[in-house]
């Protein structure tokens, strides 16, 4: 648990630094014509990228991204910066320590059950405090000395402060590994609707029709299906490889800019034919789907505001301190007794 929390502080800090850097850009909203041109140009220029994000008040520049890599561009599509997370010092080691303790086979499952155990221990701690509760004493939040009694009081107060977000981080970490428990809830079929058909392979026509579905929402990004590496084509696909492949793109919207989860409203469109396959807002999902869509964002801040990333990074930092206090107290009591007996 100490390893997970310590690496979580590092990973969260790196994410915060990225989010707070506006690269010298000032937010200027794009028209649909500009967004269509941006999508076409960026996907052609950077075919390895899977998502194009348009400037927003939170991130005032265009961003082309794929897993572990992002390229920032201004509104004229001049490159501003290129970032690869694993190129940062210690980032790759910290990431895999956080994910699977650097154990390739089975490490993520050990991590998942450790996270679940951490959530249970958090609940036990709340229960024990409730049994002997004496209120919340702010002056005992930080230890006044290195004495075990002072560390224990600080453990209790800090633990109460972060108990709920720490429990959420633990349970969401477990669920990320065992995504079969909740991923199906995200695959909800939309109510049958009729949408206007756009021109095939025409981004302006397709983005215009998508915007008309939700005229008051902000169109914030477009994603293409990721290529599945290592997957061999089957016999049928080899026979039909002369046919043009239909690509289903996802167009993301922010219908309610004030909510925490962003890019939660999505339209799937067949870029080849211009047919809108589905349209689903976050509020239209059943309760199970709405809860499931928060599993990963609650754990790593994906599509959440920077303030939430700051919160979970702070929780990880405090959690690291609490466990350190516990470790010091445990070592003193265990090895201190042995030393006295030997004397």
TrEMBL record:
Top-rank taxon, per record: Bacteria
UniProt signal peptide: none
Transmembrane segments: 110-130, 151-176, 308-331
Matches recorded under InterPro entries: PepSY-ass_TM
Coiled coil start-end: none
One Pfam family per UniProt: PepSY_TM
Keywords on record: Membrane, Transmembrane, Transmembrane helix
PANTHER family listed in its UniProt record: IRON-REGULATED INNER MEMBRANE PROTEIN-RELATED (PTHR34219)
Protein name per Swiss-Prot or TrEMBL: PepSY domain-containing protein
Organism: Shewanella ulleungensis
